[in-house]
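Example for tutorial group B:
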């Protein structure tokens, strides 16, 4: 082994091999993770901003439907919507009566308006599931059949000669007495979802309190039927677009300012078919929709045409509902005070006292509340002594008629 001069001159005991220099990145792993996260957020924000889908806030369900033998019609899966979200329109043309028969469902894409006829049928399991999904709600007891007409979703209200749902389904009241003294109406909203709280409102509040039902819940018609049996009049709340939609989403089939008048009308018919026996409609949320004249006007016209009144809960200061209703000469009411914004006994009592003072000043006052246990308890206690203080508790329809005549 030969040694070089460098080897001979190297200090003894220090001939250790040199370490290879590691390549160092200009950033740490955490910095790399932060950069990747930032790129993801920018991409997501860009998609949300530039995506033009007006139904982007709504769930999407893809439905696979088998093509059936013996038919020329081809199944088509629609984009937005499912039975729970109800974006597609479903029209049962020939409902099957025996096992093995088929039925055709028309599905309309809410974003494009494209119509597709879909054949559903085959084995008993498939047919039973489809029938249950598309079955219209049953007609409630005590409903005048002359005041109903069939729609693609079920029975909806209609005028029959001099009979109008607003007048027929208004609760009994001493209107002669109401014309001579200050009156207060109270509307409890958000009912139909949650059987326990809805039952409490029905059973614990006096009949003169009006109950407003949403179209949701497993069987809102059954609860509405019970309310009418206890002599409460009922209103139907229509979910409408708020300013922060879809972050704040009223629910399936919400009326949207981004939809056409025909699309919103179809959604309205779905809501109208969920139950019967209501004297009028009310907004459920909807600060943006109720303030948008091109969107709101057709809804008011349709409600007036069907003999219904309209109640604006007063939550949107920009609402055009009052002017639209006046143009149609239809019964109209507006909430003056939200009773349980702060749901404590003290604040609820304070709001009820303010409602009473408003009635004395103007002759009419309308309060709105939800079916919270504390709200029901305090309103129930307050109404027991109201007449002794010279204020008459009346159904909403009576207050609306008095307002129209004054």
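The residue assignment follows.
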């Amino acid at each position: 082994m030969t040694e070089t001069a460098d080897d001979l001159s190297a200090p003894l005991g220090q001939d250790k091999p040199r370490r290879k220099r590691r390549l160092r990145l200009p950033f740490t792993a955490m910095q790399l993770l932060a950069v990747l996260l930032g790129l993801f957020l920018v991409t997501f924000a860009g998609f949300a901003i530039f995506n033009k889908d007006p139904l982007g806030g709504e769930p999407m369900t893809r439905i696979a439907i088998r093509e059936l033998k013996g038919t020329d019609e081809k199944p088509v899966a629609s984009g937005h919507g499912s039975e729970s979200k109800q974006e597609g329109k479903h029209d049962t043309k020939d409902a099957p009566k025996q096992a093995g028969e088929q039925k055709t469902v028309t599905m309309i894409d809410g974003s494009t308006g494209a119509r597709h006829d879909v054949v559903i049928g085959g084995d008993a399991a498939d047919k039973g599931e489809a029938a249950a999904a598309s079955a219209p709600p049953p007609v409630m007891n005590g409903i005048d059949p002359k005041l109903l007409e069939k729609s693609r979703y079920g029975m909806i209200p209609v005028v029959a000669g001099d009979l109008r749902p607003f007048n027929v389904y208004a609760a009994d009241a001493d209107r002669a007495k109401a014309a001579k003294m200050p009156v207060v109406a109270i509307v409890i909203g958000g009912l139909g979802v949650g059987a326990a709280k809805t039952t409490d409102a029905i059973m614990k509040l006096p009949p003169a309190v009006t109950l407003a039902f949403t179209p949701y819940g497993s069987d809102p018609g059954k609860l509405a039927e019970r309310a009418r049996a206890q002599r409460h009049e009922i209103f139907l709340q229509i979910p409408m677009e708020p300013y922060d939609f879809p972050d704040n989403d009223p629910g399936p089939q919400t009326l949207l300012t981004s939809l056409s008048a025909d699309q919103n009308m179809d959604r309205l018919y779905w809501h109208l078919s969920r139950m019967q026996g209501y004297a009028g409609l009310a907004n459920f949320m909807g600060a943006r929709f109720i303030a948008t004249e091109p969107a709101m006007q057709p809804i008011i016209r349709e409600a007036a045409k069907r003999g219904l009144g309209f109640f604006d809960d007063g939550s949107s200061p920009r609402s055009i509902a009052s002017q639209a209703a006046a143009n149609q000469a239809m019964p109209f009411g507006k909430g003056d005070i939200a009773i349980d914004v702060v749901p404590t006994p003290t604040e609820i009592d304070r709001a009820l006292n303010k409602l009473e003072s408003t009635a004395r000043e103007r002759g009419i006052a309308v309060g709105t509340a939800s079916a919270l246990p504390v709200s029901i308890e305090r309103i129930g206690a307050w109404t027991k002594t109201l007449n002794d203080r010279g204020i008459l508790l009346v159904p909403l329809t009576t207050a609306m008629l008095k307002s129209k005549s004054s």
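Residues 65-134 have pLDDT under 50 and may be disordered. Compare this with the pattern of hydrophobic and polar residues in the output above.
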